[in-house]
Structure formats: C-alpha cells, structure tokens
Specification:
The complex is a heterotrimer, with 2 copies of chain A (173 residues) and 1 copy of chain C (251 residues).
Chain A (H helix, E strand, L loop, with lengths): L3 H14 L6 H8 L3 H14 L5 E6 L2 E6 L4 H14 L1 E2 H13 L2 E2 H8 L4 H9 L3 E6 L7 E5 L1 H7 L10 H7 L1
Antiparallel strand pairs in A: 1-2, 4-6, 5-6
Helix pairs in contact in A: 1-3, 5-7
Chain C lengths: L5 E4 L2 E4 H9 L10 H12 L9 H16 L14 H6 L5 H28 L5 H4 L12 E2 L4 H16 L11 H17 L5 E2 H4 L6 H16 L3 E5 L6 E5 L4
Helix pairs in contact in C: 2-3, 8-10
Chain lengths: 173, 173, 251
Amino acid sequence: MLTVQEIANVVEGILFLSPRPVKLSDIAVNLDVDPGLLNEAMERLKERYADCGLELCGVAGGFELTSRKDYVEHLRAFFGELDKSRLSRAALETMSIIAYKQPVSRADIEDLRGVNSSGAIHSLLDKSLIRISDRGETIGRPFMYSTTPDFLRYLGLEKLEDLPPIESFEKKV
Amino acid sequence: MLTVQEIANVVEGILFLSPRPVKLSDIAVNLDVDPGLLNEAMERLKERYADCGLELCGVAGGFELTSRKDYVEHLRAFFGELDKSRLSRAALETMSIIAYKQPVSRADIEDLRGVNSSGAIHSLLDKSLIRISDRGETIGRPFMYSTTPDFLRYLGLEKLEDLPPIESFEKKV
Amino acid sequence: MLFDILLDVTGFNGSFEMLVEQVRRHELDVIHVKLAEVAERLVEAVRPNIDLQQFTPFLSLSKLLFVKSRNLLPGRDQFGETGLDEEAAQEEEEPTEVRERLLEQYKAFQSVRDHFRELETLNASRLRSMQTRTGEMPGFIDEIVFLEKVTPFDLLAAMAQIERRSREDRSYHVRANEGQRLSDRIAEVFSFILERRGGPVSFNDIVSIAPQKQEAVISFLAVIYLVAQGKVAAHQKIPYGDIIITAGAAG
C-alpha cells in the first residue's frame, strides 16, 4: 500500500510526464489507490506548488502542471536566445539535406525526413544558413533552397566541395 | 533585478520545459543573472527537489528534471508501453572502448573486439551517443569517434572525468 | 639462374639465394637490407634475355619486401605471421606481447561494458518528459533538441542516417485478424466524438499518450472509414499536423 506522501509523489511524476491534463479518476483506477487518500495527496501537492516556478492547474476535469505564467517572458527570452545560438536536431537534418541536395524544395525535404519541416526551414532562414535560391519547375513552382556563405563559415569550410562526400560514410563507418 | 527566489522559479520553469539538460552558464548569459545569485537559487531548488516525486539531476554539464526512479513501476503502469529499449551488447562494448580511447578509429575498435563493429558504430551514431570528431592521420584517413553529451546523459554522468579510471577495471579482471 | 646472382648491396653481400635463406632462418634482419638495390640488380641481370622462368626470384623478392614492411611495425616477428615459412610460424606460436596486451585490454572493456549496463538500467528508471511529451512542446521552444558546435561530420552522419531511414520500409500491413479490432475501433472513435457533442476532437485525443504504430494506424483507418461514410469530417491544417475531427460530413 502506498502512503499519502508516496501517492503525492507518483501523481507529481504523472503530471510532470503527461502532455495533457490528467483526471484523478484515471489515476485512481490505474494505480488502484483509494480516492480519499488520493484527495489528501492532491492537497499536499497543491500546497507544494502554491508558490514556485510551476503551477498546478485544474483544467477540463483534470490537473495539469505548467510553468507559472508570471515568468513566461523570462522563459521566452531564455529559449529564444538559446535558439539563436543552437541548432535543433530537425534543423540539423534539414540543413544536411539542403547541403547535399541543393537546390531542393520543401516537399523533397519532407519526403526524405518523413515529417513537416517548415519550422526547421524557417529557423535556418532566420539564421541565414540557407536561402531561397530559385523556383522549381514542378507544379506550384516551389521555392528551392540552397546554402549560404554563412553556412560555410558556420561549419568552418572554405567551399562546398570541402563537405565530406556522402559515399565516404558508407565506406568508412 | 530578479530576487534569488524569482531566479529559482524561472530556472524551475526552464528545467520543466527544456527537452535537454540546461547549463547554468547558458542561464546566466541568456537571462543576464549574476552567477552568485544563480548558485544560491540552485541550492534552493536542490533542497526543494530533495524528497518528492521528481529528481533534479546534474548530467552532461547541466541540470535536468526527471521523475524519481523509485516510482518508475507506477509511472510505467500509468503510461503503458514506454520505450524500454536498451543498447545491444555489441553497441555497449563499442561505446565503452570509444569512451576510454577517444578519439578512436573503427580499426582500433575492431583490433580490440576482434569482430566487425560497423553495425554497432552506426547504431551509436544514430542515437547521437557518439559522433565523428575528426579524421585520423594514418593510411586512409579513417573517421575518429568520440562520445557526445548524450552519452553522458544516457548513463546519468555529469562529465567524462566521472568515469572510473580504466585501471580499476583492469584490476577486476 | 637468377638465384645465384651475386649481390653487393647495402646491408648484404652474397648470393640472392643466401639472402632469402638467411632472412628465413632469422640470421639476418631484413630491415637493414636495401631491397630497392636488390631489385635493381635483378632487373639488370634479366634485361639481356627475358625468360618467364627467370621471374620467380621476383616472387621471393616481393615476399622479402612484405616481411620487411611487417618488421618495421612494432611487435611482429620476422617470418612468423607472413606464411613464408610454416615451420617457423609454428615454432613461434606463443601469443605475442601485443596480442596479450590487447586481450587484457579487451577484458577490461568487457567490465566497463557491464558497468555501463548497470548505469543504463539505473538511469532508465528516471523518466524524461520527452518520452511522453514529444511534439507537444510550447511553440517557442523550437524543436526538441538543441545542438552545440555542429561540424561537417555531423552533417554527413545526419545525411547518411536520413538516407538509410528513407530506404526503410515505412509501410504498415493490416492483417486479416485485425479486421475485428478495426471495426471495434470505428465504433469507439465514433462514440467518443458523439460524447464530445460532435467535436471538434483532435486525433491525438483518440489515441493514447504514447501510441504504438499499430494503434495509430488502426485509429487512422477508423477515422478514414467514418469520413468515407459521411459520419465525420476531418481537417488537417498542415502536412503531418494534428487532425481535427467533427461529426457530420464536411460542409
């Protein structure tokens, strides 16, 4: 049997991990805990989250853990700055496709990656690592993307031909 | 100016939202907070997370919030099939050699293991646990492999120096 | 015979046959013999009358070159590993120091591997929100992972991975015995939408938090079926984006 404190800890973990609000009834059923003890545990959690960087919100018949809205500007600023100096995995993948296949359309990139890539393309355009170099000949005359001189500088390359050839990977790894 | 408590709250929000371990230096620079105050704020957070449903872990040179390991069975029960995949023996062995000998070539790894290790290297590269860090000076200019921050995170290590010296394993043999 | 040819080269004085024999018997270290000069002498001797038979010494010369190159590397024995002399190889069967050292190192790495396995297991019980929250991050946190210091090699590795991934079979086959699951799912999805007073309902709401491929596919097929029957309308704003479902046919 779980103690009230243990129940509170498990619920805290569930709320931390869940992308959506969680219903107490779902927790009670799934973990087989007494609803009375669960309510007690929720009271402890509410107290714990009364005044900190996160908020325990009751929404849509459930509970959800979010960052506290008072700090949203600081959080935006932090992640915005981080984004300026870093690449995301999606951006890296998109950049390698553009580097090796340029000029290439967004549809071709998405075909290869298998996921929507508009966010990554925007972020690379913002960083001036890629540019719209042309319009394709296919239906809709899509934008074609190529790398920029900033791209070469970013990777410390003199010219595009200095990129390690793709065949070298299969041969050497 | 943010107070220590406000800094602690902002950091808590950042750690909650960030998909990756966060470096204190990034917080100090991006939010322009005094490193002394930031350290004080971190002490408060460590205390706050000393005994609850979440863990504040120091990994890969930064901090990360995770669920507390004691409750993993309950959390798995609630969320159903979460990815449980582990590295193969071959991949883990290859990763051990790279961790201690980096930068190291595939030939050197295969000399030690006595078997082809290309599959293991592929799978470690795909998981971002290792990266090609350079090309060697020997014949064929082979790729040289090193571990990544994700390697540290995967094993819950703060830095490479936290690995026990290789001699301690030699004695065990 | 060319084997009888007399050599006077750096590091050796005598017949070619003697040279080969002495190296084989470990009486002479081939490292100190200039084989290029030997080759020159042999070529000079062969030039006036070319006869294929006479080329056999070149085979022996090439073996000497091979032995010499091996011996320039540390920890190798003269004939032992070259196959030039099986007898000598058998006499030298004891593992070399290099082998022993490698074996010892390998054993140490096996212990490292076991240690890593323990760390892996321990660390896997700390769950990260990324395992469940994928794709649900607030818009201002760009996309999942932030990388520092990207190199051309990272680009290469990423490209190779994408190509391999795109070659993989991404199709999913619905087997005959899944027909029942599908019709159950159609009923479930439809009643779920009606429960929500006809929607709108997000596709994410009708699958579990971290759906397996099978669950996602069956649920998707159920939605498609309901659309075809004119019972619901589905709308997707951007490719790969969320699908919004409402009761009733599309207007």
